[in-house]
Design the sequence.
């Protein structure tokens, strides 16, 4: 229990990941699926940024001269997550565009209804 | 000179990415075709030179940019990577050459530029996945490849395509979420992203963290398994591969599902290493799912009515062989998994392109309507026959070589029962490929009204298919050389 | 949008938003921000312009063809610069730009030109995404005649 409380960021991230994963997997509505995917991605960003954060250290921006490297937090996970955010944005945009197309062709965004339509 | 040759892997990715965005600047369709063919031939030729260089001098590590390994991105180029890179470039060249004659009949003419842009991006990202030695870089390339692959599915703009693409995209983003989570776990244990550094850190810190390592391994397996059509996660594949235009189907089936497998093998053996891997159940899981895929993929393929759907399900079965080879966990099994990647890529490209040519010339889709097609299109059916014989596993063809050696590998690892699975799966393959061939040549009652050679395409439009099938036969004949080449660079 | 208040206020604010976006792009190598962040601010200003002044006026001002060519040229230029950096690093050539004095605007080698190119691409792409969602399809998307 104490371990869970100490690592509350990681626990929260895993919890959010589970929520997003279940939404992405179980809901039939495409918009909800996209929201679930975003929650899932965000949880991973949270986890990663938490990995790089060191309490009491500064962001690695040079203002008045350079401190020793131990004065800054680890910038690599933050940089990685910037890339991850860009990727998530493009996937989300593409998915939304496809959803619009799907709605034009089928008239619904519920996946189970689309499966039942059996159209060509 | 040596330095210039070592630039080739990076240069081929950069050239493809650059010219992907030159294509939208062109105005005429003819220029698009000419430019793409010239660039693809150039990339294929320099990759061929690179393979020759690797064969003579062995592999190396390549630092990208000004920063060396723990901070910068590194490419690892060995025998396997260079060979697979050459394979991808060659097949993409042949498919683009084929699409030169047939693409306009399947998609709108204003989409042709888009198709080529997406295709170049796709190939560049696949080469990136194959070459990379940095797991986060691999993840980014995976996402790019997913988006581009969805793009070449929806380029046809039919109802079924959009549905298939959205199914693929949802499952794929699920998979990439799992992969990213796996990277987060690995990074939290090791603090590195470059594969060799992670490996060292994992070996040092493994004490008491076995569960964490196992979870990250399973995350990688499932995430990359979705992208590589591992059996119960294959449900996106048949829709996507059967609804896409035929050149896209060939690229999707031959290349797109192969690159994640290479990445998975690299993660297994370069990140975790044999010592950690042999202490877990992951390989047994992969083996079990591969066996299921081999059997059920073939069973599903047998019950399909549409030709392209059947070939797509056959891909699931063939991916089962590759997972089988990985799951055996010995050196021969891994070599055969990679050899089967080569064999299946060439064969499946042939099958999809010839099926696409049937559909394009006759307008039919279901298997029943192709009875007597051999009279109308003998050359194409001949190519189809050769490649399906390879799928079934007739000697001298590459499919036989990989099945034979997989059997050897399973005896070597002491799992004799798996031989029956291999035999059963081969028989099932025969059950669904032979009726098409036999009915195509001898479907007596359907020959009425069919004129000999009436729908045959000019030979120059079939040239890429013929070259592909010749290369397939050569891959079977010179299998000893290929296997020896792969074996030199295998990761175990 | 019909309201003249919204229209006038927006047209007053747009230059400031754009200047801020350009600032974020140009100082990307010295302070938080960079090509993606600044580009998305610029793209947001374009989207705002479109929402307020109507799609037909905006289409006349920012033609799809030109924007696409612009974005593609920026990407190609980015690829050429980055390829030069990679190749020169490996072959051990001299860096033609040099690093400059740390902390001043003209420093950081290739980072600022690359940031500018990324900013252009991101701004145009965000604008395209908004157009795509508004119209369902990018009209006049005929790349090839």
Sequence:
């Amino acid at each position: 229990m104490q371990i869970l409380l100490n690592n509350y960021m990681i626990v929260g991230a895993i919890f959010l990941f589970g929520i997003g994963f279940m939404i992405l997997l179980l809901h039939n509505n495409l918009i909800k699926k996209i929201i679930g995917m975003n929650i899932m991605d965000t949880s991973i960003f949270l986890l990663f940024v938490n990995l790089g954060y060191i309490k009491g250290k500064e962001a690695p921006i040079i203002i008045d001269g350079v401190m020793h490297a131990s004065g800054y937090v680890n910038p690599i996970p933050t940089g990685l997550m910037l890339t991850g955010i860009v990727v998530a944005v493009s996937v989300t945009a593409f998915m939304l565009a496809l959803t619009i197309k799907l709605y034009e062709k089928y008239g619904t965004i519920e996946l189970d209804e689309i499966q039942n339509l059996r159209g060509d | 000179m040596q330095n210039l040759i070592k630039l080739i892997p990076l240069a081929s990715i950069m050239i493809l990415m650059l010219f992907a965005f030159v294509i939208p600047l062109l105005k005429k369709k003819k220029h698009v075709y000419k430019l793409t063919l010239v660039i693809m031939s150039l990339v294929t030729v320099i990759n061929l030179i690179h393979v020759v260089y690797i064969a003579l001098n062995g592999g190396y590590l390549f630092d990208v940019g000004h920063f060396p390994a723990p901070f910068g991105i590194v490419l690892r180029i060995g025998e396997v990577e260079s060979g697979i890179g050459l394979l991808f470039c060659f097949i993409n060249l042949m498919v683009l050459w084929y699409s030169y004659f047939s693409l306009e009949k399947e998609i709108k003419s204003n989409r042709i530029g888009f198709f080529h842009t997406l295709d170049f991006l796709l190939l560049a990202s696949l080469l990136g996945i194959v070459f990379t030695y940095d797991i986060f870089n691999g993840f980014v390339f995976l996402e790019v490849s997913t988006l581009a692959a969805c793009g070449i599915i929806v380029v046809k703009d039919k109802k079924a395509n959009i549905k298939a693409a959205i199914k693929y995209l949802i499952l794929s983003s699920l998979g990439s979420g799992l992969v990213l989570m796996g990277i987060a776990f690995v990074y939290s244990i090791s603090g590195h992203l470059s594969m060799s550094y992670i490996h060292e850190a994992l070996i040092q810190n493994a004490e008491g963290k076995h569960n964490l390592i196992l979870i990250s391994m399973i995350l990688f397996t499932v995430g990359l398994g979705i992208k590589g059509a591992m059996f119960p996660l294959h449900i996106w594949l048949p829709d996507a591969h059967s609804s896409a235009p035929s050149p896209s189907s060939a690229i999707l089936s031959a290349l797109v599902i192969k690159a994640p497998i290479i990445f998975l093998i690299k993660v297994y053996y370069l990140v975790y290493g044999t010592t950690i891997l042999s202490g877990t159940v992951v390989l047994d899981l992969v083996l079990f799912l591969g066996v299921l895929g081999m059997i059920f993929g073939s069973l599903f393929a047998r019950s399909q009515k549409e030709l392209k759907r059947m070939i797509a399900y056959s891909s699931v079965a063939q991916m089962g062989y590759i997972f089988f080879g990985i799951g055996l966990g010995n050196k021969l099994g891994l070599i055969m998994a990679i050899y089967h990647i080569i064999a299946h890529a060439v064969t499946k490209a042939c099958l999809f392109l010839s099926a696409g040519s049937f559909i394009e010339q006759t307008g039919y889709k279901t298997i029943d309507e192709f009875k007597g097609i051999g009279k109308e299109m003998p050359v194409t059916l001949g190519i189809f026959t050769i490649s399906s014989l390879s799928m079934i596993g007739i000697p001298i063809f590459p499919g036989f070589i990989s099945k034979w050696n997989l059997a050897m590998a399973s005896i070597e690892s002491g799992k004799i029962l798996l031989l029956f699975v291999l035999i059963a799966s081969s028989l099932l393959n025969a059950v669904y490929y032979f009726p098409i061939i036999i009915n195509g040549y001898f479907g007596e009652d359907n020959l009425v009204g069919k004129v000999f050679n009436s729908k045959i395409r000019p030979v120059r439009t079939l040239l890429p298919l013929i070259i592909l099938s010749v290369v397939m036969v050569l891959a079977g004949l010179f299998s000893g050389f290929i296997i020896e080449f792969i074996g030199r660079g295998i990761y175990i | 949008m019909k309201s003249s208040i919204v229209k006038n206020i927006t047209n007053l604010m747009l230059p400031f938003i754009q200047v801020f976006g350009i600032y974020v792009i140009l100082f990307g190598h010295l302070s938080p921000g960079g090509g993606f962040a600044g580009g998305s601010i610029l793209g947001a200003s374009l989207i705002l312009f479109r929402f307020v002044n109507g799609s037909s006026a905006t289409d006349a001002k920012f033609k799809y063809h030109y924007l696409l060519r612009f974005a593609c040229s920026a990407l190609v230029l980015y690829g050429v610069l980055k390829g030069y950096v990679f190749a020169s690093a490996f072959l051990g050539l001299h860096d033609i730009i040099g690093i400059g004095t740390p902390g001043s605007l003209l420093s950081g080698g290739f980072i600022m030109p690359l940031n500018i190119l990324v900013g252009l691409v991101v701004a145009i792409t965000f604008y395209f995404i908004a157009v795509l969602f508004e119209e369902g399809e990018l009209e006049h998307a005929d790349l090839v005649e």
About this structure: Residues 29 and 109 of chain C are 10 Å apart (CA to CA). Helices of chain C lie at 4-26, 35-53, 55-61, 64-91, 111-135.
